[in-house]
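Memo to structure team: turn this sequence into C-alpha cells by end of day. - J.P.
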Amino acid sequence: MNDKNEIEKGASERLIRYFDLVEIRSETNSPFEYIQEKLTKAIEYFLAHDIEKLLNILYRIDVAEKEVREAMLDKKPAERLSKLVILRELQKAETRIKYRNNNQHGRNKLG
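Reply from structure team:
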C-alpha cells in the first residue's frame, strides 16, 4: 500500500469511529466525497441536537478553535466543518506515517 492510500485509509477509519458512520464501516476504501457527505449529515445532526458533543469531538480531533468559530459563521457550517475535520485527520495520518517511516529508516541504519 502506498503512503497516500495508507494516509486516506487511516484518516477515514478515524472519522468513521469518531462520528459513528456505521453506513460505511465495511467500505475500507471509501472515497472521501462519500465520507464527507456522511460526515456533513452527522455534523448537521450534532449542530441541531448536541452541539456540546460535536465540540468535544472537534477538540479531540484537534481542529483549530479559530477555524471552528469561522466555520460556525459560514452559510453551510456543517459542510465547512466536515472539510476541516477531514483535512485535520489527513494531516495527522500523514504525520503518523512519516514518523513511522523515519523510525523504520533509523532502525535499518542501526541494524
